[in-house]
Design the sequence.
């Protein structure tokens, strides 16, 4: 059920007149539209020209009308912090279809996600290093994706169609220093998950059913958007179930939290229509059939990715399960998800291990 939101003025959070998503076209770079050899779109070379932020751009303070949002369970991205924004064309709105489908966005929508490493994961007040800002733009033919690479001075981000590697280091949650060769994906890699028929991965009503970023105690993102007129199709009092927060036991059972983790990290490929549909795995949150989630299921064309193991998930035996083998690997051709990670989600894998151990 939608968490009850306190009825407060939205003026401090979202401007009712959503600003136009038209962008400056100076120094624009043409990006081939996913799935098309003839249609093109132009995006500016500089992130600043997308007019998403006010003040120093590195502070990630959205302009009036740009929606800053958060997810219950996010995709693992090598322990980066992430900041998410939606910019709608003037006078338009998102459409609620049902709680399991992604929101439907109007043509011209921009979805932005900035990735950063806090200098000290234990204390965000010590600052951070911005790595990239990924932009998805909704076109009539589908979504196009481009990354903007931040400079060392943290004053600007520039379009990087070819992708990049950013050498990074930080103090981890355990107090130890860690390093990573962070991957900024190229435009073709963006198509792998965000092609012309794919919706954005994160913004499903189940995953958005939570408070917004910041200190608006008691508020709910979906209700705020509905009340602001930027979300249509969601009725007052309509029930929307919330995806659990994968690492908070109070939000759901072990199985529910595992389903939430698998849904956001794997189901954009492993569902009946996704790029990995031939695997026979269906890792959507709504899939309850054990065999569809891999329990005692033999792999299909896994090759060396199986590690010589016989089943995707062996009840009570995580070390005999292909799922664990692939999640713990960082070797190309074996590791899952294939992109864009370089590191193992240790806490996420431990969650999956606990779930497999609990199966009988």
Sequence:
């Amino acid at each position: 059920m939608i968490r009850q939101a306190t009825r407060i003025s939205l003026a401090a959070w979202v401007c009712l007149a959503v600003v136009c998503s038209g962008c400056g076209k100076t120094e624009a770079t043409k990006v081939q539209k996913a799935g098309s050899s003839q249609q093109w779109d132009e995006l500016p070379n500089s992130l600043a020209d997308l007019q998403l932020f006010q003040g120093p751009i590195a502070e990630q303070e959205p302009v009036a009308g740009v929606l800053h949002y958060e997810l219950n369970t996010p995709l693992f991205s090598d322990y980066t912090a992430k900041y998410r924004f939606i910019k709608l064309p003037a006078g338009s709105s998102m459409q609620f279809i049902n709680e399991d489908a992604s929101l439907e966005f109007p043509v011209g929508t921009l979805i932005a996600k900035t990735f950063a490493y806090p200098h000290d994961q234990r204390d965000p007040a010590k600052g951070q290093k911005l790595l990239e800002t990924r932009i998805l733009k909704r076109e009539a033919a589908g979504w196009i994706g481009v990354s903007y690479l931040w400079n060392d001075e943290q004053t600007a981000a520039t379009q990087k169609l070819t992708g990049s590697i950013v050498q990074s280091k930080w103090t981890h949650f355990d107090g130890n220093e860690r390093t990573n060769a962070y991957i900024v994906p190229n435009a073709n890699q963006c198509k792998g998950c965000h092609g012309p028929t794919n919706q954005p991965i994160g913004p499903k009503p189940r995953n958005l059913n939570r408070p917004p970023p910041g200190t608006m105690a008691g508020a709910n993102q979906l209700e705020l958007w509905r009340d602001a007129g930027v979300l249509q199709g969601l009725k007052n009092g309509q029930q929307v179930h919330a995806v659990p927060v994968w690492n908070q036991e109070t939000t759901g059972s072990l199985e529910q939290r595992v389903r939430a983790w698998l849904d956001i990290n794997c189901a954009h490929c492993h569902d009946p229509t996704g790029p990995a549909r031939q695997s026979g795995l269906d890792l959507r949150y709504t899939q309850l059939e054990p065999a569809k989630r891999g329990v005692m299921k033999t792999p299909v064309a896994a090759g060396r990715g199986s590690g010589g193991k016989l089943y995707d998930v062996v009840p009570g035996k995580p070390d005999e399960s292909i799922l664990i083998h692939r999640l713990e690997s960082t070797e190309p051709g074996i590791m899952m998800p294939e992109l864009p990670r370089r590191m193992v989600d240790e806490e996420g894998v431990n969650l999956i291990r606990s779930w497999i151990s609990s199966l009988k």
Q: What stands out?
A: Confidence is low (pLDDT under 50) at residues 3-29, 33-40.
